[in-house]
Give the backbone structure.
Amino acid sequence: MQFKPGNSARSLLALAVATGIATVAHAQDGAPSAQGLEEVIVTAERREASLQDTPISVLAFGTADLEKFGVDDLGDIQHSVPNLYMRQFPNSQGSLRTYMRGVGNNDVGMSTDPSVAVYVDGIYVARSIGLGNEVASLERIEVLRGPQGSLYGRNTIGGAINMVTAKPKGEFGFKGNLSAGDRNYTRGRVEIDTPRAGGVAAKVSLLKSKKDGWVTNQGSGPNFGDNDSFGGRLAINWQPSDSVNVDYAYDQSDVDSGTIYYQNIGPSLFGFSQVPFQKDRLDNVRPRVPVEESNIKIKGHSLTATWEICDNLSIKSLTGYRELEQSIYQDYGANRFTTRLFANAPFDNEQDQFSQELQVLGSVLDGGLEYVLGAYYFEEEGDEDTIDYITLPLGFLPPFPPIYDQLLEIELPNRISTAKNEARAIYGHFTWTPAAMDQLHLTLGLRYSEDDREIETQALASGFQFFSSSADDSWDNTSVDLTAAYDLTEDVNVYAKYVEGYKTGGFNIRGTNQTSTTTPLGEETVTTIEAGIKAQFLDNRVRLNAAVFSSDYQDIQLSFAVLNDPTNVVLYNAGQADIKGLELDLTTLITDSLKLTLGYGYLDTSVDPVDDPQTPAVEQNKVVLPSAPENSFTADLDYTFPSFGYGELTLNVNYSKVDDAEFVSFVRRGYNIPGYDLWNARLTLGEIAMGNGTASVAVWGKNLGDEEYVLDGIEGFPWSPMVAPYGEGRTWGVDFSYEY
């Protein structure tokens, strides 16, 4: 593969050389310190193992990392993971569109599956609705880049994200956190552990937060970006014997919000001259029509039982049930001169899912052959109900008085859709270490998947049926994973792998006629060849992990709104793409008090020519992979100040940079998401003795440079070449925590 890394890559290499030299120089000044980098434990292969022994491009963030980065929801980690790109779904602040290595999906509807799978304690979360909400109690987040299938409940083509919650400790404990900051930000979190009694221990976690939006609504309704959320979690651990362990968890969240503000950033198009536009970020707006509040409610149950039959054989059962309700109001063109140019009022979702997974984990040949065998079942059912409003072209007339708004605004047909999905799979993952060559580890993964999907869609106009359609289809796939890993030394491991990923087909429940809603969508596949190295040097003071890969992305499920008609969503299979990339993660302990972590991701993508099914294939219809920036870079610096006899003072400075990215596959009007860079910092005075416990106080700031950066974009509206929401500006706050 030929790579052409940009300035970020050169900066990373220069920093890597400089920090390596500094570390070597420090080691040569005297005897090496006994302190080294802490070992990172992950469960990426369904067993606890060192990050350095896991032949996957994976990053892990523990409790301390999540606190110092200020990770409140899943979307916050994207600025610390190169080649991971997340965008909010346009009408839902709590819904994420996740892309990894350039592979993802633009829609979060129930008629298709996500390309990047999210798991909470091993339970697959089918819908990305709510993933942008705060989580009450997280212990670790693992990010696995590349296709995953032979070890997890669902086969995914982009990657997987594991969210691991904190389990009961079995002894009494308390941890509380209070936060306050600008824009009336307040946040409180409490975790209480109970002593183990009769083999049972419990943990209760509660979280309440509130913050004003970053675009002030000077009219009626919530601010744009408002968030008022509550989350709770009950975790119970039961150990009836030394060989049996049972974990049950119940979680609930309730979020009231004001949707993010989409501002017109380009000159208004013909017929809409009254619509204002501004390229710089707006801080306030006065909508002509009152803005309504949005709400998301989520509940979930999980039950995980493990029986260790003997030292080299165990059986594990994972059962999960989740349900959600969402009611969204979004005005994509709120301004004081016109009525609603296009609005979802409302956009309602309901969904429930059930999954059951059974695993057999063991080893034979004196541990020379380790295996994981699994069987998986999943079903979900949900509906989507939306009413849209759109305004006719206003021409060049002066602004109409509000009394005439109803003459210009049209209520579009009410669309009601339901979907039922069912999936079954069996898989096996085998790793063989020959007795005569224990440095070599050969892995074979196999998976067979079956998926069924059925949909019903109705569009109603003024109570009369406009059209009605229903359809169903099935898909199946067999995929393979081959990996060869070799231990060059105790601290240096290399690997090469061939892996296949599969995403099931679906339907377009947002089509505008029977043909578009009932035509089945074919499956997507990704085949990836990857080579990597995982190494530690200088008494574990330098850790370097790198991977290069080449992916063949086939039958891409392309989704976009037809130009000038935001109600007409097109979904179809669109050829293939080639993706080549690089991931580099470097951590170095320059001194016992100074640690530097660097990350770099590079993507080189090309898509075969694709005809736009709605318009002639003209030259300006450039085809690209959305959310696939060429370069992404992160840097994280931790410094512990010399002791002054009271607590421990630490400083964290975090920087992230990402290149331009496209937001749709067809680039028609020449707009994209510009690249941006963000600076964050946190100063913490911790380990303060207070009674029987310890306390800490932290002052933090996010987006310290007050960068004006775009989160998303839509170019399908008739009044504007592009509307886009801007990210949150500079924010600051103070945290106080106490634990015993």
User: Anything to note?
Assistant: DSSP finds four helices and 41 strands in the chain. Residues 1-6, 8-34 have pLDDT under 50 and may be disordered.
